[in-house]
Amino acid sequence: MKKIDLSRNFSKKKRPKKDVKFVIIHYTGMQSKIESIKRLKDEDAKVSCHYLLDRGGNVIQMVKEDYIAWHAGKSKWKNFKDLNKFSIGIELVNRGHNFGYENFPNKQIQSLIKLCKALKRKYKINNQNFLGHSDIAPLRKMDPGEKFPWKKLSKSNLGIWYKIEKANLAIKKNDIYKSFFVNLFKIGYRYFNQNKSSYRDQLIIKAFQRRYSPEKITGRIDLKLLKISHFLTKNQKIS
Q: Pairing with 87, which of 34, 48, 49, 65 sits 20 to 30 Å away (CA)?
């Protein structure tokens, strides 16, 4: 059952239905549901989302879908910038990395899946366009984090996943770094230069690991991570 507790933090001009192409998943990163709702309604904070899901799976609508909520901030994915304009933002109540990062309860995830399926049907959203905040803002954000069950969502065709096949990629050791970032660019990640390494690259690698290899968040590329990136580009309709 959906409850309504509207925030005033949204762009006042309505957007056409066709503009909604993404669902962005966040965690609240605060110590309680009450604090999270208070902040999402605080006009000085200038942050909001369309939906908040508490740990019991209850859905609270904070901003109507035909308005732009302020959840993504500075962000990029493929050819899109400032993804607030093109997305539905969903916050999951979770203390996050700064306050004792928690597992996501089954009731919360089942409720999320149900909501995302409805949004997918309504807006004809592609599987690949269900993203985390850290996907679109990897230099700033870690949410929803390594405990979020992306693989489980992918079984409901919400977000992409991979199946590593036996294959010799025939890539020289010196080419692993470049090949990995070529793959990331195809998938949709931005904020890096494919031809020149940077200190920022480690944050982008960690964002990728949190989603696709959460058991090992090192900021370093190994052969398994390269294979994951390879099969994501090979087996999915990346466009």
A: 34
